[in-house]
Amino acid sequence: MITFQECYQEYYNRLHRTYNNGSGIPSAGYILLVDAINTRTCSGSTAAFASSCLMDEETDRPILGFVNVCPGKMGVDYPEDRNSLGIFLHEIGHALGFSSSSFPFMRFPNGTARTPRDDKRKPKYKDQYGNYVPSWYTVDYSKAMKWEYGRQLGCDFSMKSCFDYAEIKRQ
């Protein structure tokens, strides 16, 4: 069961409670929140953004993530819908923890941390990253599709933001 503490949002330079403590969501291993709000992050060419928000205290596995689709930025008619689907799936990957900021929290298959931890169980060194394969998820490879996205694109692809990587490729 996933339970949450009360939640606050900051606006007008003050914290406002938006949700009280909840009773939890039984049998949930992960929760994905999806929204379509026009925020400051939606400026420029950004079509969507995502992140993991909450990690399991014992395993560091993401248990809550979000995707925000910027209104009016993704096409819903052919052929733009194919690109929009790709963007959305890419953002779900970030929400599941596939991002450079999650690398220090990844673990070996036996559950031990790949990165040394301090007394608060956080990675000691900001620039020591684990492997690209998070051991949080058990994969049934018989159901996997061939995924070419990011294949053999090097460190810039995995370590820079998606926007920064796209800008590098445009040069």
How would you describe what is shown here?
- GO terms for molecular function: metal ion binding; metalloendopeptidase activity.
- It comes from Schistosoma mattheei.
- With 171 residues, this protein is α+β, with helices and mostly antiparallel strands.
- It has one domain (30-170).
- Helix content is 18%, strand content 19%.
- It has three helices and five strands, in the order E-E-E-E-E-H-H-H.
- The chain has helices at residues 80-95, 154-159, 162-170, and strands at residues 7-11, 14-19, 31-35, 48-55, 62-69.
- The strands form two sheets. The protein has a three-stranded mixed sheet with strand order 3-5-4, with helices on one face. A two-stranded antiparallel ribbon has the order 1-2.
- The longest helix is centred in the middle third of the chain and has 16 residues, at 80-95.
- It starts with 6 loop residues before the first strand and ends with a helix.
- 14% of the residues are buried.
- Residues 125-133 have low confidence and may be disordered.
Condensed summary:
The protein is about 20% helix and about 20% strand.
Biggest β-sheet: strands ordered side by side in the sheet: 3-5-4
Taking all residues together, what is the mean pLDDT? 76
Shape: globular
Largest sheet features: 3 strands, mixed
Oligomer: single chain
Number of strands: 5
Approximate helicity band: 10-25%
